[in-house]
TrEMBL record:
Keyword Signal applies: yes
Superkingdom assignment: Eukaryota
Disulfide bonds: C37-C252, C86-C95, C100-C106, C156-C241, C161-C224, C169-C187, C191-C200, C201-C211
Source species of the chain: Actinidia chinensis var. chinensis
Pfam families tied to this protein: Thaumatin
Family matches, as InterPro entries: Osmotin/thaumatin-like_sf, Thaumatin, Thaumatin_CS
Signal peptide (UniProt feature, chain positions): 1-24
Protein known as: Osmotin-like protein
Keyword annotations: Disulfide bond, Signal
């Protein structure tokens, strides 16, 4: 994933879902990945440095099915995305979007852009239970996705992007498979498509004062306002939700 999306995690705890409670984390905390799409996907999970890999980092998930697993009981941060249009060919596994180096189990590796990302920072234990979650289109879009908390305390909204942006993606941002003439399988960010410092919020543009929305990020923002669309984006989604029993990532809600 891009350095822009890595820096985004630093802002999640400032702008999105900051919660505190005197109680410990829910002892039966689980995470669930739901595939409501009419096709199979290969979800992938990448922890941030120093955190454990969950579910070996990736797996197959058939259409209209789900997979639940125990959530981390200690501090954990990382991201979840879906790989699409995956296949085996000549002994090699590969995906049209979100590929993590030709592996079914990503084992901590990141995925190729464009990909819709669910990002989490979960603090458990002691006297605090601080959690944050959000959906980022900083690295582009490949599939509709939302994050839904269940049985949390306080204000616990669903966040994400339900729209299918593949149908409306501007020509300059389209990723097609096969390349050039195939179906649109992803919608690139302006950074991924053009690579300029300004669009990628690099060097001189790597600060809240100089990293600004572009016409490309505004395409994503207009369709899905409750998402992050560029590195220093700060959607007005501040809310409080503590100790959810379950965090559910839903593809094709």
């Amino acid at each position: 994933m891009s350095s822009s999306s890595s820096s985004l995690l630093l802002s999640l705890s400032l702008f999105l879902l900051l919660s505190a409670t005197a109680n410990a984390a829910h002892p039966n905390f689980i995470m669930t990945i739901v595939n409501n799409c009419p096709y199979a996907i290969w979800p992938a999970i990448q922890p941030n440095a120093g955190h454990p890999v969950l579910e070996r980092g990736g797996f197959y998930l058939d259409k209209l099915s789900h997979r639940s697993f125990p959530g981390p009981q200690q501090h954990w941060s990382g991201r979840i995305w879906a790989r699409t249009a995956c296949s085996h060919s000549n002994g090699r596994f590969s995906c049209a979007t979100g590929d993590c180096g030709g592996r079914i189990e990503c084992a901590g590796a990141g995925g190729a852009a464009p990909a819709s990302l669910a990002q989490f920072t979960l603090h458990h234990g002691g006297h605090l239970d601080l959690s944050s979650y959000g959906v980022s289109l900083v690295d582009g879009f490949n599939i509709p996705m939302t994050v839904t908390p269940h049985e949390g305390k306080g204000n616990c909204p669903v966040v994400g992007c339900r729209a299918d942006l593949l149908a409306t993606c501007p020509a300059a941002l389209q990723l097609r498979s096969p390349a050039g003439h195939g179906h649109v399988v992803g919608c690139k960010s302006g950074c991924e498509a053009f690579g300029t410092d300004e669009l990628c919020c690099r060097n001189h543009y790597n600060s809240p004062a100089t990293c600004r929305a572009s016409s490309y990020s505004e395409f994503f923002k207009h369709a899905c306002p409750a998402t992050f669309t560029y590195a220093h984006d700060s959607p007005s989604l501040t809310h409080e939700c503590s100790s959810p029993r379950e965090l559910k990532v839903i593809f094709c809600h």
